[in-house]
Design brief:
With 139 residues, the chain is α+β, with helices and mostly antiparallel strands. It contains four helices and five strands. The longest helix has 14 residues. Pfam families: HIT.
């Protein structure tokens, strides 16, 4: 897409700090650097997000994560790493070209936080929801 910032990065119209590139994907340092080494992995083919991907294009993108994540963790000497994929505005997606965030973590000192709230499980409701989701899965 002509106005997509990630497509412009792929085309070389906007500079980036590339860490990995092959015929299908590009990984580069995020300019926001939520933590040191914060990286974005994107498909070279423009697609809105993971919800819009077919299995083949998703496999090309997500298959690259382990080796890039290992290299990123080693190079930054991180204690851990979050792998985050936001899909649609309600989930925090701000650039509508599929991408995965690889965020190195440095114990509690990095100030990056993801907050999960624990709830008492309602097993009958969970079973109903699981069945509803199962029915929607395309075979």
């Amino acid at each position: 897409m002509d106005n997509c910032i990630f497509c412009k990065i792929i085309a070389g119209d906007i500079p980036s700090s590339k860490i990995y590139e092959d015929e299908d994907v590009l990984a580069f340092l995020d300019i926001s650097q939520a933590t040191v080494g914060h990286t974005l992995l994107i498909p070279k083919e423009h697609v809105r997000n993971a919800l819009s991907m077919d299995e083949k294009s998703a496999a090309k993108l997500f298959a690259r994560i382990p080796k890039i994540a290992r290299a990123l963790k080693k190079a930054t000497k991180a204690d851990g790493l979050n792998i985050i994929n936001n899909n649609e505005e309600a989930a925090g997606q701000t650039v509508f070209h599929a991408h995965v965030h690889l965020v190195p973590r440095f114990a509690d000192s990095d100030e990056f936080a993801i907050h999960f709230v624990e709830h008492e499980p309602d097993f009958p409701a969970l079973a109903q929801l699981a069945e509803k989701i199962h029915e929607e899965i395309e075979v």
